[in-house]
Amino acid sequence: MQIDLSVQQVTKTFKDFVAVDNVSFEVPDGQFFSILGPSGCGKTTLLRMIAGLTQPTRGDIEIRGRSMLGIAPNKRPVNLIFQHLALFPMMNVAQNVAFGLKRRREANAVIEKKVEAILERVELAGFGEKQIDQLSGGQKQRVAIARCLVLEPTVLLLDEPLGALDLKLREQMKVELKKLQAKVGTTFVYITHDQSEALVMSDHVAVMNQGVFEQVDTPQNLYNDPQTPFVAQFVGDNNAWSGKIRRSDGKIAEIETSGGHVFRSQLRGPLAPGTAVDLFLRPEAMLIQPDPGHRFEVVVKDILFDGANSRLLAHPPETDMELLIALPQTRQFDFIRKNDNIEIGWNQKSGICFARDKKT
User: Fold this and answer.
1) pTM exceeding 0.90
2) 3-233: which CATH number, 1.10.150.120, 3.80.10.10, 3.40.50.1820, 3.40.50.300?
3) Which of 101, 186, 201, 270 has the fewest CB atoms inside 10 Å of its own CB, making it the most exposed?
4) Where in the chain is the domain with CATH 2.40.50.140?
5) Which fold has domain 237-355?
6) Contact residues for 97 (Cβ-Cβ < 8 A; gap 6+)
7) Which long-range contacts does 246-251 make (Cβ < 8 Å, 24+ apart)?
């Protein structure tokens, strides 16, 4: 398996501030790799170091085994797409795509052939003569990608390229980008703060927080088996309880929450009785009126209708703790109204339990 990008113990400091802290990862040939994290976590600084726009304080960056330290941005086999696509409005589609090839002084006949081929690959065949202002937002995205791919980069870097699009077009482009990357086979390294973008499109995702990678994994594992409290909270929605372990057999623990409830949850590692913990549970794991077993009462505060993603906003009686509960659209729960008292529960294997971070 060929490694297109290798980042080795890279650190970037700005005076006393550590923006990227000893980060290492590898991206194999043809993978869609995303770096997901909140604003200010260091992901754009990391991308700029890969592109050569910023130099690392320590560490090395290799592309197909060749160190990029000291290599100018325009000499690296990478291209970078920003949120603002920077297409040239005075040029038509073909001229935009051909821009980099002309700067390389390639022959006109070669340029014409390459532009035609790449437009076909991004499903814009016949669009060469169109002006940029005649295109939809999604078509402009594909022109920007074609302009980069025609230069045959080893790695294409994308810095939140869907951020400026409206919600419906973003949803559409997530699928289109994934299909396009699979079709062209170029390695994509994608930066985003939007977990849905990362989960839908990526082969692997690195979750970044305060300059470090908390977990690098498949989207499925990040969602179903988070390794840190930050990943559990940041990837997908979660209800959270703080409490202490009352008793444990090493696999299943009885947890008493600060609100006085006692829950049973599977442990991800051995935790002794008395340990302060945080318990996370996803809205879809919480069952309305479950079969006999562990159940407790909540008051429906509101019904958040969103089709298949509808939720109940609820709270245990006499508390202000808010819970999100998935509301299946099977019509069996159409009777539920605001201010109703209902019973909910969950399978103990659905819980995600971590020892509480002493810093929090």
Assistant:
1) no
2) 3.40.50.300
3) 270
4) 237-355
5) OB fold (Dihydrolipoamide Acetyltransferase, E2P) (2.40.50)
6) 115, 118, 119, 128, 143, 146, 147, 150
7) 246/273, 247/273, 248/272, 248/273
Looking up tokens 């802290």, which residue turns up?
Answer: 21
User: CATH 3.40.50.300 region(s) of the chain?
Assistant: 3-233
Q: What is the pLDDT of residue 358?
A: 61
DSSP state of 293: S
pLDDT of amino acid 235: 93
The model's pLDDT over 145-204, given as tens digits with 9 standing for 90+, comes to: 889 989 989 999 999 888 777 788 888 888 888 888 888 889 999 999 999 999 999 999
Query: At CB < 8 A and 24+ separation, what contacts does 166-175 make?
Result: 166/137, 169/136, 169/137, 169/138, 170/194, 170/197, 172/138, 173/137, 173/138, 173/141, 174/200, 174/201, 175/200
Whether residue 195 contacts residue 36, with contact meaning beta carbons closer than 8 Å, is answered with: yes
Residues 279-312 pLDDT 10s: 999 999 888 988 766 678 999 999 999 888 899 9
Strand, coil or helix: what is 191? strand
Q: What is the DSSP string of 61-91?
A: EEETTEE-TT--GGGSSEEEE-SS----TTS
Q: Residue type for 118, please?
A: I
Beta carbons within 8 Å of 96's beta carbon, 6+ residues apart: 87, 88, 132, 143, 147
Residue 328 has pLDDT above 90, yes or no: no
pLDDT digit string, tens, across residues 15-71 = 999 999 999 999 999 999 999 999 999 999 999 999 999 999 999 999 999 999 999
